[in-house]
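Pilot study result, target chain (422 residues):
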Amino acid sequence: MSVSLPPASEPLRPLLVRAVAQALMSIFYENLYADKVIETALKQNPKAGSRDRAFIAETTYEVVRNFRLYTELLGRSPSFEPDFWALVGIHFLVRHIPVHADTNSPMMTELPAWREFHQLEPEKIFLKAAELRTIRKFRESIPDWLDVLGEQELPTEWDETLAALNQPARVVLRTNRLKTDRAALQNALQEEDIETVPAGEKDALLLVRRQNVFKSKVFHAGWFEMQDLSSQQVATFLDPKPGMRVVDACAGGGGKTLHLAALMQNKGSIIALDTVAWKLDELKTRARRAGASNIETRAIESRKTIKRIYGTADRLLLDVPCSGLGVLRRNPDAKWKLTPEQIESLRQTQQEILQAYSPIIKVGGRMVYATCSILPSENQAQVTRFLESPAGKNYTLLSEKRILPQDEGFDGFYMALLERTA
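Predicted structure:
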């Protein structure tokens, strides 16, 4: 039986498939993060051209994204490298060919006659794939527990949400208003053969095709950051003004911190806090490139770090640790690393942060509680619980925004704007 490869694709090459198989082994058996594994794989193949690099990255992500379906089609859990080669073969059988493809079509071509593919029986795989695609947890490739949880929390939206989360993420840039504007950035990128189109937010540009924008001159000049369209809405939702004192209490690598600095036109001050000091070091590097000069970083060493700034901030951003289920498009391995116990632990951490950090705001000041989760138990329920607690009695919910991945075609996010009234 002959099988069609993707239209107009190059033949599969063993060196590239090996790179993908080894990356998959690192992700699933060394429990490493997919983005870091792919970054390492590309560094180990420095002579690879742009198409080869794209093959390694995109194929790895697609197999991770569909790991449960492909494993079911393989008939066993992969345990050594040839099994992961077989998963790549299955990927090209079921992702790019209609289940009921005409097997007598003269346009069909065969998978390479590699020993790693000898075990694959395309006709049986096609039939089994058609059967499994009728079952959501296999079609969307998620663990049983996550399917149950999603059905409980998003009963009318879970099907559509899962389908949207299982699509590759689009690449969005945020214009750095401290150095340029969107039109000038778009023109400068075009001069480097990087084509973009404006997206919803006034500073956002969407890449027309995936490219390594980090090698561009304008990136090194600090003209933009890579930031999803949904994420770009968080700092705007907080509405910081030039001259204000703003605290970003869970700053991490600082993507939203830098956006706050741009919105504030470098006027006033931002205190960027995090429990992980090396993330703040990364923020310092990014801030220098972006020309953001009003940011002070402080590692959270104890509760005293927080208490020292109680009652001092006009604005507070709590971009809290969360399950990350809204960003599965860009981190598909998260669904294989998460557990129900971890999500419950995150819920406890989220509420603890709300309780302990909210006094940072002055009376009359405002804070945003934000997550990149789609679960109401991490979002609306946490805000309600806070407002009903003794610590939340002096706070009022002004507005909230929920973004599901199917709404705008970008990451899932939640944000709530609260004001301190006393």
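One observation from the pilot: The chain is about 45% helix and 15% strand. A full batch analysis is planned for the follow-on phase.
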